[in-house]
Fold:
Amino acid sequence: MTIDMTQFLQTFYEESFEGLDIMESELLNLDVGAADAETINTIFRAAHSIKGGSGTFGLSAVAEYTHVMETLLDEMRDGRRQVTQEGVDVLLRSVDVLRSMLTALRDGDELDGQGISDSQKELDTLLASGAGATIQETISETANQSDNDSVTEWQITFRPHKNMLKTGNDTVRMLRELCSLGDAKIQANLESLPLLTELDPEESHLGWIIDLSGEVTESQIKEIFEWVDDECDLKIVPLKPDSVEEVSIQDAPQPEVIDSQDRRTATDRRTGDRRKATTESASIRVSIDKVDELINTVGELVITQSMLGQFGEAEDFTPEHIEKLRDGLGQLERYTRELQESVMRIRMLPISFVFQRFPRLVHDLSGKLEKKIELRMSGEGTELDKTVMEKIGDPLVHLVRNSIDHGIEMPAMRAASGKSETGVVHLNAYHQGGNIVIEITDDGAGLNREKILNKAIKNGLVSANEQLTNEQIDDLVFSPGLSTADQVSDISGRGVGMDVVRKNIRSLGGTVEVKSSPGKGSTFSIRLPLTLAILDGQLVTVGKETYIVPLVSIVESIQVKQENVNRISGRGEVYKLRDDYIPIVRLYHLFGIKPRSEVLNNGLLVVVEAEGHKIALYVDDLQGQQQVVIKSLETNFKKVEGLSGATILGDGTVALILDISGLVTLTKTAGVPDLTVIDGGIVAA
Amino acid sequence: MTDIAQTVGNTDIMTAGDVSQQQYLTFMLAGEEYGVDILRVQEIKGWDTVTQIPNTPKYIRGVINLRGTIVPIIDMRCRFNLEELTYGPTTVVIVLKVNSKDKSRIMGIVVDGVSDVYNMPDEEIKPSPDFGSAVDTNFVKGLATVHEKMVIVLDIDHMCNSDELSDIEAATN
Amino acid sequence: MAVKILAVDDSASMRQMVSFTLKGAGYDVEEAADGQQALTKAKSGKFNLVISDVNMPVMDGIALIKELRALADYKFTPILMLTTESTSDKKQEGKSAGATGWIVKPFNPDQLLATVKKVVG
Structure:
């Protein structure tokens, strides 16, 4: 029966990538001076599994490549090889190579032959230099014996040792196998059989003589007794012809020259089915409890549905029915909400999946830049949506690189300013409101405000005599073209980074802002919604249109007090709220709608905040609050600045969802309404 | 919802055994008859309330909810700079599947009424002379004559893919 | 009565392959991801054959074999180790612990089936 191995490949790839992650993090954890045995063992097991699996599932290039890694690790765990920093680095690099090999194979891409053989050489060199290492390993264990092909009859004397049965070996099995090779005449030898009273039934007391005739080779016979080699007395004597003796010629096959380029077989290259290489995986691991929860909730829904269905059958509606209907609908709402929460929880994974790539990154980067950096991480257990997590990885990497490259100073400079030579980069994640907050803090030099301002003026983003607060200057770092790096390093600083980071985070429905203290350090805060699909919203009406304001962005809603409205010529209106002056945004003007009233007093101001900016939205009315499902505008239309999507209300009509950070940007670029005309007399001069 | 199947029965066969024929759904707009590739027509529905989208060209009326999907509605009279009408129960919206770059979108166009379905071989669609203004000739695939009437055959993809309607390439992923 | 086999390996893909292969041939198969899990399962069900990897977390294959042999029900049950050619010394260790024999990785399904058939019928 031929079994198609490819069905197991998906699992193999998944567990191999996990294994590689474990190898990497444990290698980084390895204390070179006092290597922990269990840690080495864990790394060994991971390599061993990948090697075993790849061999079994036909990925011979991977099996060969992993072989030397496994040998090195085996020696280390046995104490036959010292754990050195060089060794760790070589292994770390080979983990990278292995990762790219597996990715290429999984996606049907070309393998990097040169990279692989270079790495292979590195591993071989290390192996050869170690204590007690042998490159020449026999791949196959079975000794090739010169087969005595002309022998057609054998006499086999087989006597198990007393305890052979206790290893689960059964003489009958071996005799049966002999019979399958040819004609066998079996005779039992009862000489050593003790008296019944002294007989231990768990021990073997018998021997056998078997006359086997047929086209049988000695190696075939030996194979049958392979397992019990040391637990029995075995003699195999050829009866005729008798020319050749029992000499086994150990013919170990040539140690395989591991040149993966030649060795690549057709099975390793997936032709035709080239899947687009994405770092996003198509499956998710779910704990069985979550699934059970789902099943329970669905069960309750079904019950509720059939209960409600009964009312559809009713002949007439009594007040009693209405009461029951209300109850049923209440139940429906409850279970639907539970179902929704359960399903969303399934897509949630701890952020550690993203955080785990940072130790390696910091390790490599600090080495490259010759800076001393300590990475601290907290809140790794904080959960977020799988898709959001996959997309936040790159922006996070950029921010961390930025902190290390531009934030943390060189050790000498740090010492000179009284800081410890080792800089600290702290990754933190926690839940707040309906969001997850990810903070990247460094104790470096902070943002260089002068440089940023100058660059911004030079790029025309800001006019030379504009007054900006420190926070506003800091925020400029997210503008396009604003790299203040003196040289463009390949790490960061090409000037295309931070604005793309903000754009990508915004596209996930999130925001990013920075707080910086010169000389002390900076903190970048990313705020992301816990899920991409659902939003808690406040319905507001402007004219005849209904809009949704994300609840998390609402600071407060206020009735307008005319005396607090101030006008700034050329800039619009601001509202004095306690100590803040908040720009007023007349939504109807921005959106070109006819409002119910243009007089501020008659409506409400909804104060919202995004990325550190507060604005006050002028609306006609507040409606209710509800959870809405976010529907994309871009699917069939396009992205509209100021809107993050649309939703369908209970009555089937479409309501647009406001994107607060987008609105903030819009208000900067949009013109101010012609105020003198509309406010008809009531003007705060 | 008009049943297209009913109108298909009225097909016009120009030449027997002509391979390069396509079926077109025609509609009326200010007295003129226009045609669109019937394979692009997803459905035909009546006029429903539309939610306006801010800061979009006037001919984009807004969006509607089509069984859970957000679909933009284009006002054809406005698009072609024709006199506007108030829309009511007899107004028809043709929901089209438009191809742009590597994906397809659903959009609706508001027309006066649906006309018929015709078979038209490609050769019968003659290139249109340059009218100058009203209808941007990019949208017009050509002119055809059916039953002595002139049908303006539209190129849906061009019409619905101009800058205002889809993302400018730099902005898309 | 169907023959019950316990397959032990910390690699999910290996477990799947072994399980699939053996089930396809009509055997009843249960899986365990490490020696401890396997021991627990063995105690609560009577298996006719145990196939186990050597390198596993929590309790490795050698320890598992020793534990199984100490149980009355498993004194004579065939236990096969999955070994690789580079860990041949493990075979001896396994035998000393009481293993019946071994299957060398990588193996193809047919080899697995042939060996299982020999041992268990």
User: Anything to note?
Assistant: Chains C and B do not touch (no CB pair under 8 Å). DSSP finds five helices and five strands in chain C.
